[in-house]
Amino acid sequence: MKSVVKGFKPSKLAIAAVLLLLPALFSAIGFSYGVLVSCFASLYIIAVSGLDIDFGYCGQISMGHAAFFAIGAYGSVMLHKYLQLPILATMLIASVLATIIGAVIAYPASKLVFHFLSLATIAFGEIVYTLLLNSPGGVTGNAVGLFTDSINLFGFKINTYSRFYYFGLVCVGIFLLAKHLMVNSRVGRAWLAIRENSYAANGMGINVTKYKVMAFAVSAFYTGFAGAMYAHLVRYIGPDTFTQKQSVMFVTMMLFGGTGSILGPFTGAVLVLMITESLRAFEQYQMLIYGFLLLMVVVALPGGIYGETKRLIGRIAAKRKGGKAHAS
Amino acid sequence: MLLEINNLCLSFGGLKATNDVTMHMEEGKINGIIGPNGAGKTTFFNLISGVYKPDSGNILFDGKRIDGLKPFEINQAGIARTYQVINLFKKMSVLDNVMVGMHPRLTSKFFASLVHTKAEREEEARAREKAYEWLDFVGLKDYALEQAGALSYGQQRLLEIVRGLASDPKLILLDEPAAGMNSKEKEELNLLLRKILQKGVTLLIVEHDMKLMMNVSDKIFVLNYGKKLAEGTPQEIQANPEVIAAYLGGDD
Amino acid sequence: MLLQVLVSGFVIGCVYGLIALGYSLIYKASGMMNFAQGDVLTLGAFLGYTFYTLFGLPYYVALALTVLVAFVFGLFMEKFIIRKLISKNVMAIYVVLATIAVSYILQNTIQAIWSTKMLNYPQVFPVASVSIFGVSVQSQSIFCILVSFLCMAGLQVFMKYTRFGTAMRASAMNAKAAQACGINTSLSTGITWAIAAGMAALAGILLGPIYGVFIMLGSTIGRKGFAGAIMGGYGNLYGAILGGVLLGLIETLTASYLSSTYKDMIAYALLLIFLFVKPTGIFNERAITE
User: Fold this and answer.
1) Cβ–Cβ under 8 Å, residues C241 and C232
2) Class (C level, CATH) for C2-122+135-277
3) If interface means Cβ-Cβ distance under 8 Å, which residues of chain C face chain A?
4) What would the pLDDT profile of C180-200 be if each residue is shown by its tens digit?
5) Does B41 lie in the same domain as B101?
6) Could you give the CA distance from residue C138 to residue C131 in angstroms, rounded to a whole number?
7) What interface predicted TM-score (ipTM) does this complex get?
8) pTM of the model
9) Is residue B67 part of a domain?
10) Domains of chain C: which residue ranges?
């Protein structure tokens, strides 16, 4: 906690102010749609941060994370619909459910190397999708989907986009703080070691399987909760949201911003969301442009925008340092 | 006996990589393993550290069987190792590499790490201090925050050793620690090995550099074609006609 | 009834086989995974349709042309995208993403050129169906099976007995050594991707007349094709064929006799089972676990 409070600079105050006043700023410029987009941004940030824990820190790719997004969403909606549980509780329970399922899948998956892990996660994603579309007894509403309510915080209904925005902001704060704490600890070091060299990590007394499962399960919790947020923001869910394309979007957002950092997924989620929103006008060519963008990111910016920016700043700072040394 | 290896056998297909090897190593000594190329030395290390499971025979560490255990379990039991090829976590900082080495001795589990309990923060602070001490031990303290991959080759080798030491092992396996070092670095290594022994860590070293081995080892085992050819003090080994015949004429 | 189910199973099995062959070829030659294969299949179906209906070319000519176009596409994709990425030494995930990007671009381009409607091939063969053991079987199905097997057999002959095929196998096994022997490894890799694309397009134009032609034709087939490749042993060419055909048969039989709602899940369930339990596949192709 101390490390968070220490860096209290004016620029950070300014950013905090903007974040807190965002809905007001949007309506001031007559762009209230921006509030909804910001709500989406908050849940995508959480979803992608989770994926980053799994991949950016522990080195396990997942091309099927939409499955957890779905489990969180459908779990929360169905628990509320069939068991009448309060929504915040259902969101948490559904996230825990996603975590458990994630842990179960992660155990055999931890033995697979990269390409085959990606196939396994794709297969898992497809299976979940098929189950959503053809659920036993139609509990998921199959192709029609399910409608649901907004979150009810002990009487305070989060039924406007502005209210959801602040809810989302708090959630982002909590989840990113948790991520920061996790990665700067013994557990985080173990994850990084596994990503760098799992063979050596094993030799260093790290139970590689246990930590891999842990990373996967934690990321499932994050993405699951984000899915639940999505469900109660839009108040309608259908299987079409939880396809392979969604999984690819998560990976894109993560790589676009930069892996292995707190702000990387943040940047990636926000930017990709902004891009896809502005492409909505070109409905027909949306996939085409998206594909080209993806290609561009892959070819030109392998570190992601945040990652590359950090590197650039680092290089400039190093040059300056070197310059000073020369001068003296 | 700290480490007892009894009738250890391992075959790859038809090749007997380790052929009925028996070695007993005392605590508090520097033990060396020498042998011509292809004698099966690294395979032997892999058997001890759990990378391979022996076909038959057993390995007893401090009286308990460790053959067949997973590498991380063997590390937790008190055996550390370095590798022939440098296996550092190159993108992590030098300090973090050492702190990863401490992993089995730290106790903070998932939830403590998640919320940074007081106990966790104190343990991390102590660990950080200890890590700096370890770096000081090998003279790498000034490089603590650099990327491990940025160090020179010799420094990386030192870091590997100290990373292994960080888990407070009773026994450390060093796989060709002098590889690629110049004579000055080898002298410093010689001193470091003795310093490690003084800290109460038993050493088992595989090396090609004869001068270094004869100089630093208390006891030497000779492997050839997967079999133990001889064992004894450096003087005994140097006088052993079979060993001389096997290869002692050529190296270094 | 059973015969018809078996024939359908074989038809889709051959298609899976062609796709899986492409996957295993590419993996063997460059260690990569190509997620665009399915959409190349779709492209093949559409191209074939255009050549056959709009240009009025004979079916065989349309077939050959389609495969040729796909072949060139595969060459280009390898040269301008894949090789660029490899030379930049990026993480493997980026190459995978690049192929996914290509698949999205392909999908959208096909949509832009041909529209989202479903297109139907006019009848290709003068005799729509033949009677085998008293059961009516589509001629197109028989053609599909025959041509697929011819193609697979041809590939095996090519790989084993021609100089170029041997060069490709050498490059796949050890690129540096192959280069030292004077083999143009980048050309070999390019040709490998090209052949994989050609086979995918072939599968498309063979399947088109049976299933109809629509944008998503290849996507699911492409994804499920991985199951065929894994089942046979990823990287093993015989395995890819066997795995693909097996997959097609199991899928069709299960759908007909057990339940058709979860038909799509079968391929993925098989994929997971094999990955978790027997990742080396039926032919025990070198370990893919850590």
Assistant:
1) yes
2) mainly alpha
3) 27, 33, 81, 84-85, 88, 90-94, 96-98, 100-105, 107-109, 111-112, 223, 226-227, 230, 234, 261-262, 264-265, 268-269, 271-272, 275-276, 279, 288-290
4) 777 777 788 888 899 999 999
5) no
6) 9
7) 0.88
8) 0.89
9) yes
10) 2-122+135-277
